[in-house]
Amino acid sequence: MTSTRDPIADLRRIAFLLERANEATYRVRAFRSAAKALAGLPAAEVAERAGNGTLTTLAGVGDVTARCVAESLAGEEPVYLRRLVATEGSDLDAEATALRAALKGDCHTHSDWSDGGSPIEEMALAAVELGHEYLVLTDHSPRLTVARGLTAERLRRQLDHVAQVNAALPEGFRILTGIEVDILADGSLDQDDELLARLDVVVGSVHSGLKDERSKMTRRMVTAVANPHLDILGHVTGRMVSSRPAGVTGPGDRGHRARTRAESDFDADAVFAACAEHDTAVEINSRPERQDPPKRLIRRALEAGCRFAIDTDAHAPGQLDWQRFGCERAARCGVPSDRVINTWSAEQLVEWTRDRG
Ligand SMILES: [Zn+2]
Ligand SMILES: [Zn+2]
User: Fold this and answer.
1) Which ligand is nearest to the CA of 234?
2) What's the gap in Å between 348 CA and the centre of ligand 1?
3) C-alpha angle 10/14/16, rounded to 5°?
4) Sheet containing 201-205: order of strands
5) CA 244 – ligand 2 centroid, Å
6) Looking at the CA of 182, which ligand is closest?
7) Which of 4, 29, 165, 218 is the most buried (most CB within 10 A)?
8) How many other CB atoms sit within 10 Å of the CB of residue 91?
């Protein structure tokens, strides 16, 4: 095996870039300790172990670091390193812009049927002006009474109404039907199965019991993610990093506009592994007061192999332009456009959600 790359130097370079980006210490340590473990071995043994897959039996070397070493020994820049290099510094604007340009629609939006401020028609026309090919309408589910969640009967009426609105919209654009369904305490979804099956896209979010104890919250989320009706896991941690913009109302926030909220506590690796296994997309929520999930969790979901949806969770037409914020955070984390489901056409998206159940 001939290689012009030094795997130990690559591991150290990754650690350095992670530190500079102010990433979590445990992550930096993983690369530093792998570099240290390999530095104590003859190069021939490192190559042999990379060849027969026994690098991970060494203390300090995990799956991710072993993969970097194997790529490096094969003479390639490790993918992990390439992403870090590609997403730092001045390239970010271009990357975020390219990602935004690749988006064909928005999978999480509200109208005045629940707690949004505008009629469906206005939301749709604003989406047309933004150049979208589709808008998924995802009003709230019954239990979220504070947000005027739609009963099964009101949702059926909304579906009829959407069909009428669609008939009057410009060709090449359509509203896709959907819901932001509450993930209940036991992980079940707050709407009839028959209706969930009928909708084009189902976003599921936790809106209550956000302080559930870790194992309970993990079980709750994993159960929901495994539900074949659920297509996208909405605002994963439930955090609020700042007060709401003026004039914006939303579930659970009446009278608490200036409050921030901590992340829910759950086993992120278990939840993202379930998302990858069941092919449920992880939402990158673009709302400035949410910025959810935080970047460290976007990176973990990316490593877990998850797909993403970069959505605005717009409650008013102007907020449909907030996708840019989600794109910036996604770009900063190295999320490639082929992992983002709303880069697909409406047909591809609906085909995917149908295939999933
Ligand atoms: Zn929500
Ligand atoms: Zn929402």
Assistant:
1) 1
2) 25
3) 115
4) 105-109, 134-137, 174-182, 201-205, 232-233, 281-285, 308-311
5) 13
6) 1
7) 218
8) 13
Report d(CA 181, CA 311) in Å as an integer. 15
Per-residue pLDDT of the chain (357 residues; tens, 9 = 90+): 456 799 999 998 898 787 766 677 788 889 989 999 999 999 999 999 999 999 999 999 999 999 999 999 999 999 999 988 877 654 557 889 999 999 999 999 999 999 998 999 999 999 998 999 999 999 999 999 999 999 999 999 999 999 999 999 999 999 999 999 999 999 999 999 999 999 999 999 999 999 999 999 999 999 999 999 999 999 999 999 975 544 444 444 443 444 799 999 999 999 999 999 999 999 999 999 999 999 999 999 999 999 999 999 999 888 898 999 999 999 999 999 999 999 999 999 999 999 986
CA–CA gap between residue 78 and residue 180 (Å, rounded)? 38
**Nearest in space to 140 (alpha carbons), one of 46, 251, 243:** 251
Which uninterrupted H or E stretch holds 281?
strand 281-285
3-state secondary structure of 48: helix
* Tokens matching residue 38: 């390999």
With tokens 């935080």, the residue in question is 294
Between the CA of 205 and the centroid of ligand 1 the distance, in Å, is 6
